Amino acid sequence: MQSSHFSIFPFLFTFLFSLAWPTTLAQPHENFLHCLSSFPLTNSSSISKIIYTPNNSSYSDILESRIQNLRFSIPTTPKPLVIVTPLHASHIQATIHCSRKHGLQIRIRSGGHDFEGLSYVSKVPFVIVDLVNFRTVDVDVENKVAWVQSGAILGELYYKIAEKSRTLTFPAGTCHTVGIGGYFSGGGWGPLLRKYGIPADNMIDAQFIDVNGRILDRKSMGEDLFWAIRGGGGGSFGIVLAWKIKLVPVPETVTFCSVSRTLEQNATKLLHRWQYVAPNLPDDIFSNAALSTMNSSQDGNRTALATFISMFLGRVDELIPLMQERFPELELVEEDCIETSWVESILLLGQLPNDTLDIFLDRSFRSPLLSPFFKSKSDYVKKPMPEIAFQGIWSQLLEEEGRTGALNFFSYGGKMDEISETATPFPHRIGNLYKIIYTVGWQEEDNMESQIYISWIRKLYSYMSAFVSKSPREAYVNYRDLDIGMNDDGNTSYVQASVFGRKYFKKNFDRLVYVKTKIDPENFFKHEQSIPPLFS
Q1: pLDDT of the residue at 298
Q2: CB hemisphere CA count around 278 (13 angstroms)
Q3: Using CA atoms, how far apart are residues 521 and 237, in angstroms rounded to an integer?
């Protein structure tokens, strides 16, 4: 017999949503809410706290609090019919069940950093499952592992590890507000990739809810699905609740260095040389070259700027002679460097205030590396670009529309050359010298002119086609870019998805389709760049 505390559910939901839901809504949406009310949840008393509809006073705050690209926070952006912020797995099971039953699409949000807003925007009627309450991090220093829930952010993971050890970490990224769920689902990457690979290479287990509401771990889901969720992109297979990860050692002291050179200070030749040096450095060194513009101190005109960042797992007196031997043209000196702990180096790389680690817990912090409105694209480079290619990049960055544009080159090599491109869905391994991310940003007052900036970055991307990977022109799935292909609204097909799928996953795309066909044959979990089942 059903316990007595479940008996008030229908009344509670009817009362709650008679106040909160517009009376003009179509019947399927009302039925969705009534379906939630009748689902046998394990924690009934909390249900009223996790449902937000457009008439709830907190709806807009909940929706907008984790929108990291304000391109998708304007009046014309489609909004969810309901936001669910689950506290327990049963809340997610209920949302999946009722969304399927009543024809609503689900979007899954952890940190809200999807570059095209796909974790919180859809052109068809949809519900957001916001995992903000799934943010527990449990660190086991003795066994060098941790369990982290998908709604946690990278900063919370780093903070919890640092509380227990300054010589263990996880090889993740530098933007601390990125959500674990989406980031891990796309494979991830960070400044330790040349030493330990990417996050997907350091995952041990996961807790996963499939389309039928089953809660699966690695053993029960099988190796095909466990392979797919470690780099196959979010929103295609189900919902990952938590991940078990392997922690890796770092020294007590690391060295962070930064050197900037303008066009007049030989930036072009330095960048050209960097391509040959950075991928072949010892795997204890991560190297990044950033291309942007600045006002010249001499005449006030804009000039091109190249900034060379190095992160070394060791002390500065070891790094300087090594760089003087390998890259003497850079003229790196001790004054360009700071010795710090590994966790504090993340603050430096992310240009965060570094007086306290508490900034890692601030989810509302807006990264200075990204404008509030932005468009990004990505590429992989397999052969060094000629100097003339950089001259063309500078000319476009110096255009008025390129004033807020930037390119970042992230060196590969090291451990990335040792891992098969089929080990996880993330295929960008041996043969890549470096990855490029292109970004252009603008402020709210310029949003009416957004198409000017988007056209500029598309033109730059077109220019770069001669110098980057080909057949396919590869891209990184976590730098989502709808320009490279997309599914039809509310539908997917193998043919359409192959266009972007082979750019993101290369030959791994077909295995992802195979897994999708097994785990979600009716294609419930889908979006504009999701993996389709074979027969769709």
Answers
A1: 66
A2: 28
A3: 10
Residue 116's Cβ-side half-sphere holds a number of Cα atoms within 13 Å equal to 21
Catalytic residue among 479, 494, 504, 514: 479
CB 148 within 8 A of CB 177: no
Give the DSSP letter string of 289-327.
Answer: EEEEEEE-TTTS-EEEEEEEEEEESS-HHHHHHHHHHH-
β-bridge mates for residue 308, sequence order: 259, 289
Identify the band that residue 423 occupies on the pLDDT scale cut at 50, 70 and 90. Answer: very high
Closest residue by Cα to residue 107 from 63, 164, 56:
63
Within 10 Å of residue 357's Cβ, how many Cβ atoms?
19
Distance CA 198, CA 184 (A): 9
pLDDT in tens, 477-527: 999 999 999 998 767 889 999 999 999 999 999 999 999 999 999 999 999
3-state class (DSSP) for residue 349: helix
pLDDT, residue 55, reads 87
Q: What is the pLDDT of residue 4?
A: 33
Whole-number Å distance between alpha carbons of 394 and 54: 46
**Under a CB-based contact definition with an 8 Å cutoff, are residues 185 and 234 in contact?**
yes
Note if 479 is an active site residue.
yes
**For residue 109, what is the enclosing H or E element?**
strand 105-109
Q: Given this model, what pLDDT does residue 48 score?
A: 67
pTM check: above 0.90: yes
Sequential DSSP letters for 339-368:
EE-HHHHHHHHTT---S-GGGGG-TTPPPT
Instruction: Give 430-447 pLDDT, tens digit per residue.
Output: 999 999 999 999 999 999
CA distance 489 to 258: 45
Phi, psi of 104 (to 5 degrees): -105, 145
